[in-house]
From TrEMBL, chains A, B:
Homodimer. The keyword Nucleotide-binding applies. Residues 117-313 form the ATP-grasp domain. One of its GO terms (cellular component) is cytosol. This is N5-carboxyaminoimidazole ribonucleotide synthase. InterPro entries: ATP-grasp, ATP-grasp_carboxylate-amine, ATP_grasp_subdomain_1, PreATP-grasp_dom_sf, PurK, PurK_C, PurT/PurK_preATP-grasp, Rudment_hybrid_motif. The lineage of its organism: Bacteria, Bacillati, Actinomycetota, Actinomycetes, Micrococcales. Pathway: Purine metabolism; IMP biosynthesis via de novo pathway; 5-amino-1-(5-phospho-D-ribosyl)imidazole-4-carboxylate from 5-amino-1-(5-phospho-D-ribosyl)imidazole (N5-CAIR route): step 1/2. It comes from Serinicoccus hydrothermalis. GO terms for molecular function: 5-(carboxyamino)imidazole ribonucleotide synthase activity; ATP binding; metal ion binding; phosphoribosylaminoimidazole carboxylase activity. PROSITE patterns: ATP_GRASP. It comes from the Bacteria. GO terms for biological process: 'de novo' IMP biosynthetic process. Keywords: ATP-binding, Ligase, Lyase, Nucleotide-binding, Purine biosynthesis.
Amino acid sequence: MTSPSPALAEGGFPVVGIVGGGQLARMCQPPAVNLALTLSVLAESPTASAALVVPHSPVGEHTDLAAVRALARDCDVVTFDHEHVPQEVLLALQEEGVALHPSPQALVFAQDKLAMRRRLTELGLPCPRWAQARDAADVEAFAAQVGWPLVAKAPRGGYDGKGVLVCRSLADLEPWLAGVGEGGLADGILLEEAVDFSRELSIMVGRSPSGQAAAWPVVETVQEGGINTEVLAPAPSLDPDLAAALTEGALRIAGELGVTGVMAVEAFEVRDPGTGAPAYLVNELAMRPHNSGHWSIDGAVTSQFEQHLRAVLDLPLGDPSTRAPWTASANVLGGDYPELYATYKHLMARDPGLKIHLYGKGVRPGRKLGHVTVTGGREGDLGSLEELRERTRHAADYLQGVVTE
Amino acid sequence: MTSPSPALAEGGFPVVGIVGGGQLARMCQPPAVNLALTLSVLAESPTASAALVVPHSPVGEHTDLAAVRALARDCDVVTFDHEHVPQEVLLALQEEGVALHPSPQALVFAQDKLAMRRRLTELGLPCPRWAQARDAADVEAFAAQVGWPLVAKAPRGGYDGKGVLVCRSLADLEPWLAGVGEGGLADGILLEEAVDFSRELSIMVGRSPSGQAAAWPVVETVQEGGINTEVLAPAPSLDPDLAAALTEGALRIAGELGVTGVMAVEAFEVRDPGTGAPAYLVNELAMRPHNSGHWSIDGAVTSQFEQHLRAVLDLPLGDPSTRAPWTASANVLGGDYPELYATYKHLMARDPGLKIHLYGKGVRPGRKLGHVTVTGGREGDLGSLEELRERTRHAADYLQGVVTE
């Protein structure tokens, strides 16, 4: 652990370095302000989302060892806004004694989907059937086993549905097969069966280096075009045994993989082929604050951003309980309206209880610009959740220019 | 209204200037981050509480017209961390077209307690009996009317109990009478009857330049040595008619005085001398976020800091409803423990639901370093409020070194 620079922090309070200046780093700033923790963000540019709100935000690339090393010099621990820091950079810093959370040994399972599938399968955790494919013969063999369509994934570098292809025949995969051995396909293609799921779930857990762990309730995530558009917390009408199994599974993954900080486990809700009972299959892991946890800012006693800071500093974890029976959250994606400020004024007038979170980014179609959250409702009353959903969906649609009143 | 500097804000979002870099400016940063509003803080030093967390924090004095003018040049509106900006500075800027919220014409009633008493009395709002005293004869005349002891107040420049003297005889007031005509006593001394109150209450309201206003519930404030130590929201066992009267009174004050931003009305709970019914007398006004509203960060849908930003920008106001049956908050004052970080680690382990707010200040005895808040309990159940109070009092005592386990 390096010594904090007196220029950054005073009074024995630590400095948390974050590699990457996106909205996840930005949303760490409010809890850091509350807890008197100092952030230092390695940002892509001086106008990166987090750099706009964190005083100490040196500009540099996450792939540049010297830049990450310079960040680490001023910090007590270093964590990440995204999962794209190369292993060679991480391992070099670890060798030099920098406290990285999560460690490169844990993070690799969020960076490399083949490594993740292999490890979770070893641990006996439920996954879709999968295979590693380097050529057409591998693909044909797996298809013979699970049938078409297949889901192909680039093991490295994918996000928000990029690097994922649903393919109905070998022909669909030809361009990918041609790329095997390079970049995200260096070790081949990850093939998975197309899961027949009823909905997508996500669970987030926080885990500290001391091994303390805490889980938020399982949430339902609604996706459109591979991008998460809505989160409902807790997941409505979720079978309690399935909730317990998924929570247990996520805590086990965090422990076995040595995760530090917060982690999201995205899962498919399915039926057990034997018993017909509700069951889950792990879809993806993310070792950082995650879109499916944004609801916790307004809806939980401890938000995922506060918990991430507490966890990476090995502070005792906060209470992940909900603060209301229901929380609904919707993502705001870039649309046709370039003037977000004018639209949000209107929304504030329409719905005084709406919590608006914007990331300070310029509008580009499809870009994640923010999210909106509403909490409230009545315990077990799905109609009251539906009212919250209508409010967040309207707000997101309005900010995106999909509806105009 | 000046044009925002493109260096500070992008995409049509406004910049809010705050004169003063204390904890009130600091606590505006979390909601500013959420709402993509940019702050610019005129700070006393580069390590002022707010300057530690707001990227654009030029250093300068609030009494320096040139420094405040330079701040205003980059901002859409200017507001205040404290009430000490001289009227001549405010009036000069107003003349130059700077949008000040609150305006100097409103702020004077929070700066000058004599002006406040005069105006509230004109409006028929309930105040303790009071008089303006320039010499011993004035004091004797007022004492003959209301009896000893009297409360003497410096009309200008007092805060946290400073500038207030309970006097039992004319002798106690001699040093003050000698100072009449200078500084805070330029217009004499404000004398007030010593009110026989059962407890102190506070109500906060937000009001926008358009005239939209919203009130939080009335809270109880517990004071020790003239400093607020605890806030209970809502005020337990408060007579509903008194709550309504105080809320109405505060909204009327905000409207009549033309307040923009948030305002606290501190009041004494008394008995109506005629009917014996619960009643109130206005004690003090503050036209800015206030210690008695810190509970709203965790306990209300819209915090006083978010509301202040919305109000000064003339944005529609947020919902001030509570998020839990009870919220208890306690101030953390500087004590014997210089190492806050070590103590707060312990508290996090002891109480995962505790919300800790520290202001990034060095420990000095008696200095306001932070506050702690807990929300929860059961509607109308005073025992459940008492449990929350025990948690916040213990946490504050522990951080202050009063208790050691």
